[in-house]
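Two folds, back to back.
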Amino acid sequence: MKRILLVLCLLFTGGVFAANEGYPLDKANIDPTDSESLRRGATLFANYCFNCHSAALMRYSRIGKDLGYDEAQLESLFIFTGAKVGDLMEIAMQPEEAKRWFGVVPPDLSVVSRSRGVDWIYLQALGC
């Protein structure tokens, strides 16, 4: 299940290199051509991860384009607020609140997936 979530991260990256900081990382073993897996991962991200982790460099419409969803499907599967299909995928939680609650602001996954790579995210998801 966690592996599927990481497929979404690959979707955000368009191809990344792992920044493993000198530690060997388990491989995420992601197949970017498996559209059903990408769809499941995107749905899991929207339902579980997107509560705390934003993807502020992505638009809902981009998810729709990449995964073949129309506007109605995007609204029913990914948009649970007053956001529009063309909006950026931002969360309501303010950084100050997140820092107070968690001790650190949960990273924006569209940025982290690009800077650290999907293998790093896979390792972090295993610790959840």
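---
second:
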Amino acid sequence: MTAFLLTTAGAYGVWLLYTEIACGWRGIAPGPRLVRHRRSRRSAADWLAQAGLVDVAPAEFAAVVASLFVVGAVVAFALFGGLLPAVTAGGFCGALPVASYRARRDRRRADAREAWPRLIEEMRLLTGSLGRSIPQALFEVGRSAPAEMQPAFAAAEREWRISTDFERTATVLKDRLADPCADAVCETLLVAHEVGGSELDRRLAALAEDRRHDLQGRKDGLAKQAGVRFARRFVLVVPLGMSLAGLSIGTGRAAYQTPMGQVLVAVGLVSIAGCWMWAGRLMRLPEEQRVFRQDAARTKAPA
């Protein structure tokens, strides 16, 4: 057995040396991990942009989460007098910003889904009957967009005034909205702006119709889940209320400070979190994926 393990380790070491010299791969993984790292970093940046934190770096957000973890752990240690409940409660406190901004992200994305059919129809009117240019129509529509979306349109308009490069302007708008529908609209307008033609009205009409169908389907799904979502809140309210009541009755506080009590507290907190996350995963509606994004803004020289 020892000979087999040594042979395997030696063969793997030879593989790492070969891939380092021949392919330029680094690390101890059997293959390159650069693509996965970039993808996870892009996903974190998209998540923050969709939550309205476009100027916040993922590392800064992680620092806030870590700080809240420490505060929650200290408070829980003072209450329960044990390390295990303190770590568990710190995890809960650290998850609060994530949960809060996730709810904000969901609300902003819902507002965007509600607004896009109307915005697309307004662009059809402006570029068709009123004869506006595509950039001008896009910026006029942005001024009537929901308040959460207007800063992205304003940033795109500033980019247009500086560079008069619609490709870079569309990239700024897509990066700040981080929305699949925004990607599709921007790419449609970009192709029409660069190539021209008379197909823009028909393509915008088809896109608006698709957005309406998607919006109605999501509304129907949420309506069917209304009762289940209300019941899901009891996963948090009832156990936490019972635990607080137990602290104030008789020797409840002393029972929480025993080793078995601390283990049961930690198990209860983890069970609450697990049930909450599991229920949310079961009720989650499918999310569209971005397909027209860029890893970085294009840097073509201004016209």
